[in-house]
Design goal:
419 residues; alpha/beta; Aspartate Aminotransferase, domain 2; Aspartate Aminotransferase, domain 1; seven-stranded mixed β-sheet; 13 helices; 14% strand; globular; binds pyridoxal-5'-phosphate
């Protein structure tokens, strides 16, 4: 297995620690009189206290030293209490034990995708991802290398047989393996699929055999629409922390505007994440981390999980409404999967349909909007596909929206047959 240093892109080989940030651990030593650092004095801060009422009805007050800490600069890897809570959370939800140098709190998981691309991708490198692909990943990766090779997706997620063939072809041609394989294993955005247990194990097997990293981008893991037992994460299935960089997010289960997600992986890789953040943004907002830490402290993990499950019931009702309306109103030649996680349904319309044209021609007239497949295309045309999200609308609006979508489809069918 290659070392982390051997995998790094040229630009990341010389990331140097911030000499001032590296002194931070000394600050917390009892009795230390610090004449270092360039922190503004908390007495000058605009905030005195924050009173927060959570939807659960619980209230917290962030005051005094805690408020000063929330408004102050903080450590790059994590807010101390939140970092400790996240390590326990990873154990609680996934059964994975990590040390504090294996965690970096991020500005959402999006930052993690960008950092992974920054750290590992040289211009000549390649990665593999399933197509359709979340555009946030396409653009983060595209900033550093042009080669995203794709495999397709079916009801069980990323097609492992296609991935195996792709890797074997590359090996036969004498090419280096991909730097990483990126996947969204639960509630894939936009395909809505969840990677089966068997495929998770097969993916790890291929990663070991061909020696590539896996970016496990899993913001919809806990947005479970079926309940039941959670599938083990790739990180949990893989004993070696060097192999999987896991990205978790609080966006879909807490509040996206807070911009809090986190990366976990080997300490050597997380050290590189820290070095990146030291030069890019110092750390993730302490105010946001303090609020999340206070929420977890006041609700406990069981309480947090109960709230997440309540939210899932809400999303499940919407998912059910969309599936039912799709079955009732859409023509038989429109294919879709029933998502078990996440917020999306992916529709495949007959070949020749042009989703961009459908939106241009009819979205305003019919007052219904979906995202054309081209937004998620990398290597082939997904012009005949559309993504629908069921998160922001009521079941009634979903039913009406699907009816209007059916009309949009019939109009496009007429356009296609008139050609
Ligand atoms: C697959 C996927 N990854 C990452 C993100 C970014 O999430 P965050 O808000 O945690 O940055 C999203 C957001 O929609 C997403 O769908």
């Amino acid at each position: 297995m290659l070392s982390v240093a051997e995998r790094l892109a040229a630009r990341a080989r010389h990331l140097a620690p911030s000499p001032i940030r590296e002194l931070m651990p000394y600050l917390s030593l009892p009795g230390m009189i610090s004449l270092g650092g360039g922190y503004p004095n908390p007495e000058t801060f605009a905030f005195l206290r924050m009173d927060v009422t959570f939807r659960s009805g619980r209230e917290i007050a962030i005051t005094g030293a805690r408020m000063a800490r929330a408004a102050q600069y903080g450590p790059t890897p994590a807010h101390k209490e939140l970092g400790q809570a996240i390590l326990k959370w990873q154990q609680y939800k996934d059964g994975v034990t990590l040390t504090d140098d294996q965690l970096v709190v991020l500005n959402g998981s999006q930052e993690g995708i960008f950092i992974a691309a920054y750290l590992f991708l040289d211009e000549a490198d390649w990665i593999v991802a399933a197509e359709p692909l979340y555009p946030g990943t396409a653009s983060a990766v595209g900033a550093f290398c042009r080669a995203i090779r794709t495999v397709s997706i079916d009801g069980d997620g990323l097609r492992i047989d296609e991935l195996a063939a792709l890797l074997e072809e590359a090996r036969t041609r004498g090419e280096a393996p991909p730097k990483f394989v990126y996947d969204v294993p639960s509630g894939h955005n936009p395909a809505g699929t969840t990677l089966s247990l068997q495929r998770r194990m097969q993916l790890l097997d291929l990663a070991r055999r061909h020696d590539f990293l896996i970016i496990e981008d899993d913001p919809y893991q806990l947005v479970s629409l079926e309940g039941g037992q959670r599938l083990p994460t790739l990180q949990a299935l893989e004993g070696n922390p060097e192999r999987v960089i896991r990205l978790d997010s609080f966006s879909k289960i807490f509040a996206p505007g807070l911009r809090v997600g986190y990366a976990t992986g080997s300490s050597a890789i997380m050290r590189q994440f820290v070095l990146f953040k030291q030069c890019a943004n110092l750390h993730t907002s302490m105010t946001a981390q303090e609020m999340l830490a206070a929420f977890i402290e006041s609700h406990g993990f069981d309480g947090f999980m109960r709230l997440i499950e309540d939210n899932c019931r809400f999303y499940r009702a919407n998912r059910d409404a969309m599936v039912e309306a799709a079955r009732e109103h859409l023509p038989g030649d429109v294919a879709f999967n029933v998502p078990r996680h996440g917020m999306f349904m992916w529709f495949e319309l007959p070949t020749g349909f042009d989703a961009d044209r459908m939106i241009r021609s009819d979205a305003e007239d019919l007052m219904v909007l979906l995202v054309p497949g081209s937004a998620f295309a990398v290597s082939r045309s997904l012009a005949h596909c559309m993504r629908a999200s069921f998160s922001m609308v009521s079941p009634g609006e979903i039913t009406e929206g699907m009816r209007r979508f059916a009309t949009m489809i019939e109009r496009e069918r007429e356009r296609c047959s008139a050609k």
